[in-house]
Write a structure and sequence with these properties.
This protein is α+β, with helices and mostly antiparallel strands and 550 residues long. It folds into three domains: 73 residues; 129 residues; 250 residues, MetI-like fold (Orthogonal Bundle), CATH 1.10.3720. It is built from 16 helices and 13 strands. Strands 6, 7, 8, 9, 10 and 11 form a six-stranded antiparallel sheet that branches. The radius of gyration is 31 Å and the shape is flat. The model has no long low-confidence stretch (mean pLDDT 87).
Length: 550
Amino acid sequence: MIRHWFQSGRPWIWFTASAVSISMILVFGLLLLIASRGLGHFWPSDVVEFQYTEQDGSTPVLIGEIKEGEEVTAARLRDAGVTLASDDVVTRYLVKIGNRDIYGQDFRWVLEPNMRDVRKPEDLVAVERWEWGNFYGYLLAVNEQGAVVAEGEAAWPALQERISRASDIQAEIQKLEKSEIGAINYGMERIRLAKRRLELDNDTDPLKLAQLEEERAELQAEYSVLQKRLAELYQHINRDSMTMRIADGREVEIPLAKVVHAYRPNAMSLSDKIGFYIVKMGDFVSDDPREANTEGGIFPAIFGTVLMVIIMSIMVVPFGVVAAIYLREYAKQGPVTRLIRIAVNNLAGVPSIVYGVFGLGFFVYFLGGNIDQLFFPEAAPAPTFGTPGIMWASLTLALLTVPVVIVATEEGLSRIPKAIREGSLALGATKAETLWRTVLPMASPAIMTGLILAIARAAGEVAPLMLVGVVKLAPSLPLDGNYPFLHLDRKFMHLGFHIYDVGFQSPNVEAARPLVYATALLLVLVIVALNLAAIAIRNRLREKFRALEN
């Protein structure tokens, strides 16, 4: 009976279904873990205040957020130098105490048995700062140019009003520094290189030199106006401050120019927390990173990842399709062609770091160095294209993924019936016209399939990018408002490298851990979004040519 059951093939159906189910559970379980650990980081947790009994018998007051807890044995704690009376299991908590500029650290472990008088006062304030992490304490007063303007109950609304004003001024400062003054600096550098080019060409035309000097004078005049405006903004933003009392009773004055958000999590309702959570999520997606990438947002990494994938796709599809067309439609089928196909298939299994080394040696040093000598001699000795950048990174990943596009395109071309080609030729079309107007449109879904696979692999690659263009923090985006707008020579940030940097190179591991999960989730979502866009295009093409295939 069992033998017949196995011969019927039903057990293998069940085994296959079970394997697929387990795989799906593992995938969704992993995504759920990443989402819960990452997205929970932005929720405004309650801030607790308690007395803590130290090993020396002192009982300082601590203020902070309880981030996580775990159960450990008393014996294990005694091995670590902590003395406990019993051998029971003890709960300990990781508390974010903040105030790193005062305490020297913003996380510490505390034992639950040593915690006394745990409470959550509604007037406890959590302050997110541009640097030095969070600050926790009680708001005493709001100051303007050193004089108290509000204290007591009136201090909180006055603080929110002045933080909003400081945020507007900070946004205007960033716009001036990055956009307008950045554009002037870019123009000044362009003029310097143009003058250097005239020197190298021995061109002493006074009209050209006068024109460059006139442009430089105009830019300098614009810079003087913007610099004066910038000084006024800094004067306005630095006049306000807040006085806080920390856990040990000391009073600390914090300039509002260093404050991003100030909130009272213990006094917030559920709707207030949801609104604050949405704001924090928006900041994470749209802001630049700060504090060694452990605070702030990851917009440059998102932008760099998407732009690199787009450039890579534009490069890989023509090369892959042309190679597949030659192998399938024009090359004589024989040992040489089979050898080429074997080589293409083997290229898909080469470790990605090997492509990175090749890209560094060939694209960056050889091609980039020669391009600099031929077209950018005025910039020497500083390299222009002879240094890692987004173009070389995209070309390296295009080389890495081109075997996938070749194989997928060949499969699509092989599935097109021979009768369609013969019918087109019989109607008087040339082979090139048949290929361009009939065969390739019908094979476009397969081409898109290859592109989808290429995007899925390229978006998550990190090792080769570390050699050919990705950096920890890019000073400017590869795409901006300065001519030629798309700067292919610039370095860029990448979500995959950002995960590596935050997770393994961060000086503040505890603060960086939630951002690793949040960035990993965002990388998955970006890859899914890119793939869904390609799948939608493929499905439309498939529907368009389905009737012709039939």
